[in-house]
Amino acid sequence: MDRPKPIPIGRKLAAVASLAYAKLVLLAYWIVSNLIPSWRENPTWTLRRAVGFRLSGWAVSEFSQKFQELCSRDFNAEPDEEELKRWNVGFARTEKLEGPLTGEVGRLEKEVDVKRMKVGVYWYGPQDDNGRQNYCAAPGERVLLFFHGGKYVIGTAHPSDMTSFIPSQLCNFARTVQRVAAVEYRLSSMTADAATYPFPTALIDAITSFRYLLDLGFDPVNIFIVGDSAGGNLALALTRYLVEEERLSLAGLILLSPWCDLTSSHSRPGLSRQMNVEKDVLGSAIDPGSYATNAFLCGMSPENRYISPSCKWIHPSFRGFPRTYLAAGEMEVFLDEIRTLKSRMEGAINGGLVYDETPGAPHGEPPLPCHRKARLSPETVDFCVISFMEPERSQLVTRVAEWIDDVQQPADNYLICV
């Protein structure tokens, strides 16, 4: 397996200095500059939310891009028993994916020369006394397969990451699903010489994790695929492969603020990519030509149904897709491409579509500097973990859980229901 290079002590010190600057200087500035409601990005926000918005935007656009290796975990890292107990999770590794993949994904895997690997999976839900359990499926058991966000270049499935709120809380709120398998897929990166783990590497890892669930005895019709932001993009790609190439039926697809167009087809005046750039924590960090898109694509055209299903220049089919829950925030830069995805999925998917748009909400909370052993201590980054999108965040998770359980709710219980 690939072994990451040790992080020089100078890089660690530079990251600590950057975090200290944000905490001691930028934080004070943001507090003062948002004291009066009319000065805030959204005058209805509290001071805490307005400052949290600025802090998260800084983490996404500046810190995470400058210190990418410190905002993610080593995908080869094995958590010890003490760590598993502390976070009340389990951990397992899949076997390597066997057999050829078909269609375009199989062709691209060979062209890019993707090396298959054993993929780490964190299990959220009931654990035994040792933090581990028998992961095999009970008869008829339903499960969620979760892919975290982070622009394909940062983030982790580890419970220290902010996106762990989603799998951990879905376990608590959903009555018909008790376990979530969160996937530690490989992230893309780029140097002056080459890109590492570009598309379709993450998709190969996603397929590997899905086959792992099948090996544990889960039936495809009992597997929900869930993705947040870039993880939503990956969830869409995995679902497309399973539906188009393997002709499988799934329990459902849950897309939380998915990144669904890596082209510039939604980067025109009057659309959310430009209108919301100052209102959203993502800003321009995911624009065509950004570090994230360049690292993920490695020169490949984004006009591909596996990469940009909302691209206005292509017209992918969604025939055979399972029932879907699609969520977005009114202030996020992805809004228009998510609305395009909504219009394309309507009437084409089995079991219907629920579209949930939260007024006044930016993109979901980004993965911020991760608590990882031998890198940055939790004390260094505590100030970055600000859950400023409450109660909307918990309310959305509750609605998703009700949808998973197929609880019939009045239309006005959803902000927008289609």
Automatic annotation (TrEMBL):
Keywords: Hydrolase, Membrane, Transmembrane, Transmembrane helix. Residues 144-364 form the Alpha/beta hydrolase fold-3 domain. Pfam families: Abhydrolase_3 (PF07859). This is Alpha/beta-hydrolase. It comes from Calocera cornea HHB12733. It comes from the Eukaryota. Gene3D superfamilies: alpha/beta hydrolase. The chain crosses the membrane at residues 12-32. GO terms for molecular function: hydrolase activity. The lineage of its organism: Eukaryota, Fungi, Dikarya, Basidiomycota, Agaricomycotina. SUPFAM superfamilies: alpha/beta-Hydrolases (SSF53474).
